[in-house]
Amino acid sequence: MKSALRISSVIAGFFLFSAHTITAQIQPTYQPQPTYQPQPTYQNQPSNQGSSSSSERGTALNRGNFSIGSGLGYVNSVTNIQIDNGNTVVKSGNRNFSIHLTPSIGYFFARNFVFGLGMDYIVSSSKDNTDNTAVAKETSDDKLLFGPFTRIYLPFGGDQAFFLGAVYGYGRSQTEITDPNNGGSQIVNTTLSTFGAGPGYSIFANRRAALEVQAKYNYGYSRNSILVDGSTQSTRTLTTAWDFVVGIHFYFNNRGARTSSNGY
Fold first, then answer.
1. For the segment 229-253, what is each residue's pLDDT rounded down to a tens digit?
2. Which of 2, 79, 94, 248 falls 20 to 30 Å from 125 in CA-CA distance?
3. What is the CATH number of domain 63-79+89-252?
């Protein structure tokens, strides 16, 4: 009996040892986790100042935008006439200057191309220079013209642009002429048509405003009618002059207009 118990104890011990050995073999060996590698720090992308300025200018000149602005111009011209009839020489002419204000509103039908309507309010003064009269005759008048205008812009440099502009104006005016000899005055009715074209330069302060200068060559045609001794006398005059204008324009974005990826 004791022998049987001893044999059973040995067999049980053998099985326990075997089970422990098998369990130890089944457990996976520990694998050390990889050490934490720090992520690279974020590098700031270099800012592109030029593209930002181009976007501002391009936004202002986009198709579908509006422009509202005005300019102040100055014209000064001198005319000298000399008549030689063989015996006497007569010198005459006049000096004329004018200041004009030119508000306008336009619409960009295409990128860099604007078309709109403008007004030209002109205040001018003329003084004759004639040897035949002791006192020079002075004339002053004002004119109000309306008509279309157009511009084509050529952007460059990020926030600047050259442009070529043209404008047509039509209007009527009344001129008061004072006779220095008798002190009397007459009213002259004038119909005036003008056409001007020339290059200009704009610099954009932001997406909404631009300062500009322009030099225009103007061609004018006027027809005057005056009552002289009970009869009407008509005169036609052709005038050419250079005009220098300084102004400011404001641009308004049309939110429904399409803007391309580069800002234009």
1. 666 777 787 888 888 999 999 999 8
2. 248
3. 2.40.160.20
